[in-house]
Each structure stands twice: as structure tokens, then as C-alpha cells.
């Protein structure tokens, strides 16, 4: 299983990275986890977006889903698509209100929103309790603790497991999500500080504590807000987890 970082900047794009978005490949199957601001452009450096087999959205904050509007334009208006996008609709596994949220993102005014239906080129599937199969991938959604309905994804393929937190504050479900994972791709939005708001994000130390408690083999830190001190976040994570730990970077590829 191959992981490509399309974007890893938290809350909004940074000078060196789009917002959150991740491409996973196994054999000839490709799925994306989130498509934040700028990630569709980055994706085109690696694959044709028409080659995607499914997109999973952890939640509907713009830094994780804003490029869905751009993906809609591509699938609806490309003059020479490699296949008919209405005959091969792209599976979109997302929170239940995603069709309305994405229609509002795409349509410029209330009149157009009232008649916008994106199901011509997308198959919307509310995030289920049971695992979703996409080719060799099995994706289990686990509810997280955030400002809105949010899920992490536990992705298994080729005998390996990648756990992706999405956005979350500390919660018991994180240990379930990351249990014995080969890679924990965890948000680490900021360095630890005493007045951090609850149920919003993880610090580097908190992400590392999850990795340790869950017996994850490797920790990749992502979703770092542009004003945060990346090296401080990395240092506190390494102090709490003795496995391989690093900050991800946009356009980097990792073997899981």
C-alpha cells in the first residue's frame, strides 16, 4: 500500500502545502482520504483524478473537503474524459449531509442550489458502521471527537493497516482506530499547551501517546497549522513515542 501526501497543512493551506488530502494506492486501485484546499492540483502530479475509485471524507470542514467543487467541475466538464463519468460515477463516502454541503460549495446562489444535484457523476454513500470494500482496500470508519461530526479511517490492504485520524481531540476511540496499525497518520495541529480547547485537535505529544497506547509501529504527523512550530511538535512526539516518528511533507510518498 502506497501513501502519497497531497496536502498536510492544518486549517488552511500553508506556503509549502495544500490543506489535508491523501492518496492511497494498492495494485490498480486508488482511493483518496479528504480533499482540502489545493489537493486536486497536487493529485494531478501523481494520478489522473478520473482514476480514483472512491473518495472518503472524514468531515466537512473546508480544509478537508473544499476541492470537491473543483473535482465536480472536472468530472462534469472535461471535454475528453477517459470514461463516461455518468456511467461510472465516483463513490463518495462522506457524512450524511455531504450532498447538500457539496451542492452549496458548488452552486453560486440559492436558486442554483435549489436545483443542484451532483449525483449525476457521484454516488454518495453515508459513512456506514460496517467496513467499506474498494478493490483490495477495506476501510472502517471510527467516530472521532471534533467540532462537528467527524470520523477517522482504518484502512487495510496487502496485510497492512494505516490509521488516519482526520481531525479530533483526545478520545478513547483513537486507541481502537490505531490498534496495532503499521502506520498512524495522525493530526498534530499544535505543540502542547495548557489552555488548548477540548475536542478540537491533538498536540504532537497527544498523537504520540495514542501511537504508544495503540502499539502502532510508525507515527506520521500531519495537519500542522502554518503558524505552529513544526520542530517543537516533532520533538514532543519523539519524547513520548519511541517508534519511528516524522513530520509528513506535501508530495512525499510512503510505503505502508
Automatic annotation (TrEMBL):
Checking SUPFAM superfamilies in the record gives: Metallo-hydrolase/oxidoreductase
What terms describe the molecular function in GO for this protein?
Answer: 3'-tRNA processing endoribonuclease activity
Question: Among its keywords, does the record have Hydrolase?
Answer: yes
Name of one Pfam family that matches: Lactamase_B_2
Assigned keywords, A-Z: Hydrolase
**In the UniProt record, does the keyword Cytoplasm occur?**
no
Q: Which domain of life is it from?
A: Bacteria
Q: Which residues form the Metallo-beta-lactamase domain?
A: 18-205
Q: What is this protein called?
A: MBL fold metallo-hydrolase
Q: Which organism is it from?
A: Saccharopolyspora elongata
Amino acid at each position: 500500500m502506497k501513501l502519497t501526501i497531497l496536502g498536510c497543512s492544518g486549517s488552511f493551506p500553508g506556503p509549502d502545502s495544500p490543506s489535508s488530502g491523501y492518496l492511497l494506492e494498492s495494485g490498480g486501485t486508488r482511493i483518496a482520504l479528504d480533499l482540502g484546499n489545493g489537493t486536486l492540483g497536487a493529485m494531478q502530479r501523481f494520478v489522473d483524478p478520473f482514476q480514483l475509485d472512491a473518495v472518503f471524507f472524514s468531515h466537512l470542514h473546508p480544509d478537508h473537503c473544499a476541492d470537491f467543487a473543483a473535482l465536480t467541475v472536472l468530472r462534469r466538464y472535461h471535454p475528453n474524459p477517459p470514461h463516461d463519468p455518468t456511467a461510472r460515477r465516483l463513490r463518495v463516502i462522506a457524512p450524511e449531509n455531504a450532498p447538500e454541503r457539496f451542492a452549496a460549495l458548488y452552486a453560486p446562489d440559492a436558486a442554483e442550489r435549489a436545483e443542484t444535484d451532483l449525483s449525476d457523476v457521484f454516488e454518495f454513500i453515508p459513512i456506514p458502521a460496517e467496513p467499506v470494500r474498494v478493490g483490495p482496500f477495506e476501510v472502517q470508519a471510527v467516530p472521532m471527537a471534533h467540532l462537528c461530526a467527524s470520523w477517522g479511517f482504518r484502512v487495510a490492504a496487502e496485510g497492512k493497516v494505516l490509521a488516519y485520524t482526520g481531525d479530533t481531540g483526545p478520545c478513547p476511540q483513537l486507541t481502537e482506530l490505531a490498534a496495532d496499525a503499521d502506520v498512524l497518520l495522525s493530526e498534530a495541529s499544535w505543540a502542547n499547551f495548557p489552555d488548548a480547547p477540548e475536542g478540537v485537535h491533538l498536540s504532537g505529544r497527544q498523537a504520540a501517546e495514542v501511537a504508544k497506547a495503540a502499539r502502532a509501529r510508525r507515527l506520521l504527523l500531519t495537519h500542522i497549522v502554518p503558524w505552529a512550530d513544526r520542530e517543537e511538535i516533532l520533538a514532543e512526539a519523539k519524547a513520548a513515542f519511541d517508534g519511528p516518528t516524522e513530520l509528513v511533507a506535501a508530495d512525499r510518498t510512503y510505503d505502508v
